[in-house]
Protein: 4Fe-4S binding protein
Organism: Thermosipho ferrireducens
Amino acid sequence: MKLTKFLRTVTEILAFLLFLFLFFNGKLQSWILIFGGLAILSLFFGRFYCGWICPIQTVFRPVGWIYKKLRIKRFSTPKFMKHPVVRYIILLFFIGLLIAIRVLKIKIPLLLFILIGAFIITLFFKEEFWHKVLCPYGAILSIVSQPAMFGLEIEESECIGCGLCQKVCNANAIKSLNNKKRRIINNECLLCFECKNVCPVKVISYKH
């Protein structure tokens, strides 16, 4: 587990440095190629981009850590925004915006503005609001990762129903079953492995 956390942290830092390098060299649009490549891989291995590469998630981590230490509570996702159609309306708007920028040849670091916007939002709202409603990249990956052959799974027969995994899941990708066991919704899982790290009976694993 310590190795996984170390590798994830190193990968996030390197990816964030690459993001900044592309930005300062006026080539931030190249990040779309990185996202596109990992979106294809998510068809098989799940949403590693979200948990290990995404610069937005990297920014979220220290914010979450500070808020936890200071015991600062954030607002939950507004109820009217939880309807699945809202997520895809936002995605369509984002795609339309990308097309408009391309057609009109407007030079704007859209990805940077999205990162700044996400940072501001997460200062007031729980991360779930971004991951499951507002993030256009998350919406895309939630679709393409549905047939993924690999993912984090809970061995339900051995789950003790403590709920610790749910408490650390910032994407709210773990649901409670009628028997109080837990199950991971794979196409919503960010593969951050936090649930695996806190499971007291070690029944969560990444597998086929």
The chain has two domains: 2-144, 151-207.
